[in-house]
């Protein structure tokens, strides 16, 4: 069983000795990423599996050059270039925050919006994506649903040829048919052009044939490095042949692992076990006239 990049001397994505904290000035804050070392070959399609808060989005944002790393000895390279000092061409990052931008929620027609970001330069791919994602060029951005707005984002982000695609949960708003058509397009694009995809998602239905590699993150670290899919070694995730089953098992293990940490002093999630009312409960109970 080979890890991604184990036989590749010049990986498309290469991360060495990456530790990152959103508040590096406060030593009490646990790092979001701890000692990340990964190597992904050109043309690979890697699925990142992990619970909320595992560090998947942070890793993708760093690879996209959206968060600065200053620690000496850390390397974050795409296509052999430092993503902070000489960001390479041909890298596309698509995340969920785009749909919340007030600019893309304004009264602008989709056709005009796509042309404003260069859609006319990529007509063939743009038109193919418009059909795949079932987008109406006459839609007004402020009148459409979140799912429809997400489709427009995907047309915009994918219509230019990309070499490396970083996807952070952007298929969550899509209906199952559109999502399936999109994944088939991305897989074909990757195979035909040798393009590389790193994709964080919580939706695993219909993904079994998509990845070349699968990885598991937990609390900012890799439990399972990007590993060739389907797994040949049952020790990685038991006798699971479906990605959904693998993800479910890993997420259960993550929850059990976190609960063991809670027994040792980590902040506990869920309902409080004591019967002593908290201050907010005492305050609001005093003014509760519903009985």
UniProtKB/TrEMBL annotation:
<keyword id="KW-0067">ATP-binding</keyword>
<dbReference type="InterPro" id="IPR003439">
    <property type="entry name" value="ABC_transporter-like_ATP-bd"/>
</dbReference>
<dbReference type="GO" id="GO:0005524">
    <property type="term" value="F:ATP binding"/>
</dbReference>
<dbReference type="InterPro" id="IPR027417">
    <property type="entry name" value="P-loop_NTPase"/>
</dbReference>
<protein>
    <recommendedName>
        <fullName>ABC transporter domain-containing protein</fullName>
    </recommendedName>
</protein>
<feature type="domain" description="ABC transporter">
    <location>
        <begin position="13"/>
        <end position="244"/>
    </location>
</feature>
<dbReference type="GO" id="GO:0016887">
    <property type="term" value="F:ATP hydrolysis activity"/>
</dbReference>
<dbReference type="Pfam" id="PF00005">
    <property type="entry name" value="ABC_tran"/>
</dbReference>
<dbReference type="InterPro" id="IPR003593">
    <property type="entry name" value="AAA+_ATPase"/>
</dbReference>
<keyword id="KW-0547">Nucleotide-binding</keyword>
